[in-house]
Every structure is written in structure tokens, then in C-alpha cells.
Design goal:
By secondary structure, the protein is an alpha+beta fold. The chain has one domain. The protein has two helices and two strands. The longest helix is centred in the last third of the chain and has 44 residues. The radius of gyration is 21 Å and the shape is elongated.
């Protein structure tokens, strides 16, 4: 199914951004809310820091979280392969 591109305006950390996206609107809403909440949280913990630095810190934190999730998925895939190989060996021995 081909999705049409939609322009949506969001407020992130007090700034308006118009995004053109063909992604699921609910998913984009969640991502925008996460960025806005993270930037607000960082700003509250670091008063006086300029918005550019807050955005940079938020980006670093999100990239770190993404890398951790990616690593967990890769470890899970390796574990799944090991389990599948073990099951195949056991099945072969039983035959």
C-alpha cells in the first residue's frame, strides 16, 4: 500500500517544525513527544543551557538508547541461532 505524504506541524521545545512524512501519524506523534519530553527533562536538569546543546544531548541519548537496543537484538539473534542449532542436534540424535 502506498502512503501519501502528509505535512504535519509539531512543537518541539517551544519551536514549530513542519514535517513531511508518509509514516504512520501515531508513530510520528510518539517520536515527537519523546524528543520534546527528553529536551524538556534535560533543560530542567541543566538550567541556562542553550537549546542547541539541549538538542545535541537529547540526540546523543537517543542514539545511545538505539545502539543498546540494536545490541540486544543482535545478542537475541545469536542466542536464537544457538538454540536452533542445539535443537537440530538433539533432533538428529533422536532420529
Amino acid at each position: 500500500m502506498i502512503r501519501s505524504t502528509e505535512q504535519v506541524t509539531y512543537s518541539i521545545f517551544g519551536q514549530s517544525y513542519t514535517l513531511a512524512t508518509d509514516e504512520d501519524r501515531g508513530e510520528v506523534d510518539k517520536a515527537v513527544a519523546e524528543v520534546d519530553n527528553l529536551m524538556t527533562q534535560i533543560a530542567r536538569s541543566m538550567p541556562g543551557v542553550d537549546p542547541f546543546r539541549i538538542a545535541t544531548l537529547a540526540a546523543i541519548r537517543l542514539a545511545h538508547e538505539r545502539d543498546n537496543l540494536r545490541r540486544e537484538v543482535e545478542e537475541g539473534e545469536v542466542l536464537s541461532e544457538l538454540i536452533a542449532e542445539s535443537i537440530d542436534r538433539e533432533c538428529t540424535q533422536l532420529s
